[in-house]
Amino acid sequence: MKKTILLTLLGLFVAIVILPALVVLRGGRPEVKVDTSGSPLIKVLNVKTKEIEILPLEEYIVGVVAAEMPVEFESEALKAQAVAARTYTVKRYEGHKKNPNKEHPEAHICTDSTHCQAYISKDEMSTKWGILKYPGYYNKIARAVNETAGIVLVYQGKLIDPVYHSTSTGKTENSGDVWQFDIPYLKSVESPGDQESPKYKTIKTLTLEQVDRALGTNLAAVPASTINNPSASPLKIIEKTSTGRIKTIKIGDKEFKGEEVRAKLGLNSTSFSWKAEGDKITFLVTGYGHGVGMSQYGANYFAKEGKDYKEILSHYYTGTELRRYNANKNSP
Length: 332
Description:
By secondary structure, the protein is α+β, with helices and mostly antiparallel strands. Helix content is 37%, strand content 20%. It has helices spanning 2-25, 57-68, 75-98, 122-129, 134-146, 175-179, 208-215, 224-227, 258-265, 296-304, 309-316; strands at 41-46, 51-56, 109-110, 151-155, 158-159, 164-165, 201-207, 235-240, 246-251, 254-257, 272-277, 280-286, 294-295, 321-324. The strands form five sheets. The protein has a three-stranded mixed β-sheet. The longest helix has 24 residues, at 2-25. The chain starts with a helix and ends in an 8-residue tail after the last strand. The relative contact order is 0.15.
């Protein structure tokens, strides 16, 4: 009896775990074929290898979506991400013809997410997700790309800059509050569902000396009680954005943009408060990213609520339209 049970369990283990793994390792499990017909070839600088890879547009977009958005997200959110990533790529592909990027003049785009967009290869996807999950996850993203193939976002007939970020604070930002210039399709909108992000609320503690080194200030010489006293604190908020993020802040005798402080201190967003204790200061941060354009967690929330990718994109990019890109005509 025990032998029969053991043999049964062994059989189930082989059927459920071993065989699927062997099939995947041998490449026998079919993948959804990415439709690259009519796709322009994109020159992608891999910042890790320092080599330029040439990929069909739609194949490249699969790698971007896999790197930029959690694969567990709803399909309509993945489609919205695919369209945003494609628009971003095509705009740089077209711009490269007249004005190559100074950082990578031989490539249309790079894999540095702080400069262009993140991207991972199939091998990196397999490593990231594991060989058992890879086929299903890859196919999920490939379908999202195929079902939006060639579609881009335009405003008054021109390709937009479809910036996006991980997690907003319940509202996205006006572009002018972050980058000093207003873009009509990058307006502040409601973004419900951001609270579902694991990075909606984060805490970062630094020593006062670390802050001083990063900002060139002298907080280490100030007692914690003074830093925590709103009327006497050397940290004073000068201006906030319409959503309550810090736009300008004065620290000691120096004035900083909120984005500058975020970058230099490694904070997740410019929506933060602080509390000093001893020789340390703790920042309480809401949101993750610059806050402009599409919130990825907001997009996933809308998708779970039944919105399709067209509705999601229309919400986050005010007044935009969807068009099919035609590389031969150099326009959407």
